[in-house]
Amino acid sequence: MKRFLFLFVGVLAAVGILPAQNPLIEGKNAYATIKTNILKSAEKMPEAAYTFKATPEERTWGELMGHIADAETRICSAATGEMKPANAGKLTAKADLVKALQESAAVCDAAWDSTNMENAHSMAKMGKREFTRISWLIYNTTHDNESYGTMAVYMRLRGVVPPSSEK
User: Fold this and answer.
1) How far from the centroid of its chain's Cα atoms is residue 39's Cα?
2) Which residue segments constitute the domains of the chain, with CATH numbers given?
3) Which string of DSSP letters, residue by residue, matches the chain?
4) Exposed e or buried b for every residue in 22-31, given b needs 16+ CB within 10 A?
5) Taking residues 111-117, what's their average pLDDT?
6) Average pLDDT in the 88-103 region?
7) CA-CA distance, 26 to 32, in Å (whole number)?
8) Phi-psi group of 81: left, alpha or beta (phi > 0 → left; psi -120 to 50 → alpha; rest → beta)
9) Is residue 16 predicted with pLDDT exceeding 80?
10) Could you tell me the pTM of the whole model?
């Protein structure tokens, strides 16, 4: 896994996406961007749309927000070895889900803030899975980006412009 991370970061630095000096800063910046888009989206979506499903097989918007909050809490707390309970999936009200997303973002912010070049490659477990601390944080950012792709479709279907498209 360490080889993969070094290779991944090296390739990104070589093509100019990341500066070679400190890839942690760029990883944290990527997380901060998606965190902002998710939080703004949750706040922007009308309360009535929290029960909206794009298709019958999909989650409601509210269930998706709960899933994201729970995933962030679990993944980012796993990165630091401090597994925190996650139960936002049980929430339904917009205010409660926005608060849960803010709280899960705080868990991730703390994980990123406490990650440095000395501990980035320390191993951390969640269930049966074990990865480096930085791998968990990258995994969370990837999951957030995948979730935001779904969110953007939901928002467009409800006539709401996603925050990333407002600029």
Assistant:
1) 10
2) 31-165 (1.20.120.450)
3) -HHHHHHHHHHHHHTTSS-SS-HHHHHHHHHHHHHHHHHHHHHHS-GGGGG-BSSTTSPBHHHHHHHHHHHHHHHHHHHHT-PPP--GGG--SHHHHHHHHHHHHHHHHHHHHT--TTTTT-EEEETTEEEEHHHHHHHHHHHHHHHHHHHHHHHHHTT---GGG--
4) ebbebbbebb
5) 95
6) 97
7) 10
8) left
9) no
10) 0.86
Q: Establish how many alpha carbons lie within 13 A of residue 31's alpha carbon, considering only the half-sphere containing its beta carbon.
A: 26
The alpha-carbon radius of gyration of the chain (Å, integer) is: 17
Identity at 126, one-letter amino acid code = M
CB atoms within 10 A of CB 90: 9
- The structure tokens listed for 163 are 């925050």
Categorize the per-residue pLDDT at 3 as very low, low, confident or very high, splitting at 50, 70 and 90. Answer: low
